[in-house]
Design a protein that fits this description.
alpha/beta, Rossmann fold, seven-stranded mixed sheet, 41% helix, signal
């Protein structure tokens, strides 16, 4: 065989990685980097960037290929997110990392990506959603190109309901939530699951409010007081939660709050500590100071050294790692093959094994119910937000324990 024919034959059997090894695999980060929730987006960006830098340093991709991170500001807007999605695609992004813009924005972004993918076979983008926890995204509105790397609303509420089941002092519950899809769902699941766990609990009031626009929550606190509530189920996050806690404290109300991601938001632990009353319980895959997770401790130390910031979200860190594992498993960067490699993938992450359920693309990962409380050296050993308050573990559940029956009817290309 002449040498040129032999060389051509070799090139034909080389994996796609070999011919693309000099080209970076581009990941686009799309989340709020300005406006009232900019601090939240910055935390998510730092976690994503750290994981990508570490993967590149480790040579995690085949053939020496590297990840490249593109950064875009969603401005907490569905329209802006769709605009920057197209900009990311035009710049060569093959995967999108998002989640901190709220479920309505993320849902619009997923739909836009799906439409692009349908029109452009072979040039598809995969959407990784690390924080928007609308169950519909892996339920009735599931999409082959969307992968959820956070426990959804129903899973988180199930964890809280199981905890509340063993808290007899919780009797009268008020539901106060932001007026968008997720806020409405948090209220709905709260009524449903807490009622199942504790049929004796009374729901004494329910209200929705505009997201990110309320500067004074004292009128809402007044209604909570009038209703005789001892606890509040609230899906509020960021400034909306902090201002609620402050207003209740100023009114002298010692309430219990049940939330999905409170401690992950900048300023919330400080707000609770400054309030001096109230007990805020939330649920996440991990919390700082949690015992028995040495891999996260090591990861957190490395993150602190490199960024100068405290580590908080293993799920955001593991999102690019899931992609790297899928790229290696697929042996190709063809979007359809990478997506299929993600289905059913188990990753041995810093928080233990996590499993991407193939039927609906919902990641099954542990959830820890924990309460913001003063450091006492025994139950709370690590301070947060620059104050001597941190997190106390209340209960731990596996992803399998909290998994819900999916209504997804996946349409695969």
């Amino acid at each position: 065989m002449p040498w040129r024919h032999a060389a051509a034959a070799i090139l034909c059997v080389l994996p796609a990685w070999a011919t693309a090894q000099q080209q970076p695999y581009k990941i686009a980060f799309i989340d709020p980097l300005s406006g009232p929730f900019a601090a939240v987006g910055e935390v998510m960006l730092l976690h994503t960037r750290f994981a990508i830098e570490e993967l590149n340093a480790q040579g995690a991709l085949p053939q020496g290929r590297q990840f490249e991170l593109l950064e875009f500001d969603s401005k907490l807007s569905a329209q802006e997110s769709q605009t920057v999605l197209q900009a990311a695609i035009d710049q060569g992004a093959r995967a999108i990392v998002t989640g901190g813009s709220g479920s309505s924005v993320v849902s619009a972004l997923v739909q836009s990506a799906a439409r692009w993918n349908q029109r452009n076979p072979g040039k598809e983008v995969i959407v990784f959603n690390h924080s928007s926890i609308d169950p519909e995204l892996t339920g009735k509105r599931c999409n082959f190109w969307h992968f959820q790397t956070e426990a959804n609303t129903a899973m988180k509420m199930q964890a809280l309901a199981r905890y509340i089941q063993k808290q007899p002092d919780i009797k009268n519950v008020y539901l106060l939530n932001q007026d968008y899809a997720h806020g409405q769902q948090w209220a709905s699941y709260g009524k449903q699951m807490v009622a199942q766990a504790r049929p004796d609990v009374r729901f004494v009031g329910e209200q929705l409010h505009a997201i990110g626009r309320i500067k004074d929550f004292s009128p809402y606190v007044g209604q909570i007081r009038q209703a005789g509530a001892d606890s509040v189920i609230t899906g509020n996050w960021g400034p909306d939660l902090n201002l609620l806690v402050r207003a209740a404290s100023e009114a002298g109300m010692d309430l219990r709050y049940f939330n999905h991601s409170a401690g992950a938001m900048p300023g919330t632990v400080m707000a609770v500590s400054q309030a001096g009353m109230g007990q805020l319980t939330w649920v996440a895959e991990w919390h700082p100071g949690q015992k028995g997770v040495p891999k996260v401790d090591a990861l957190a130390k490395a993150y602190q050294v490199r960024t100068g910031k405290p580590f908080l979200s293993p799920r955001i860190d593991l999102t690019p790692r899931l992609l790297a594992a899928a790229l290696k498993k697929a042996g190709s960067d063809t979007p359809k093959e990478v997506a299929r490699a993600l289905e059913g993938l188990t990753l041995h992450s810093s928080i233990g094994p996590v499993h991407m359920r193939a039927e609906d693309h919902q990641l099954l990962l542990p959830q820890v119910v924990n309460t913001i409380a003063p450091v006492d050296g025994e139950h709370v050993t690590v301070g947060w937000d620059g104050v001597d308050w941190g997190f106390r573990t209340e209960a731990v559940f596996s992803g399998e324990e909290l998994a819900q029956v999916s209504q997804c009817q996946m349409q695969r290309p």
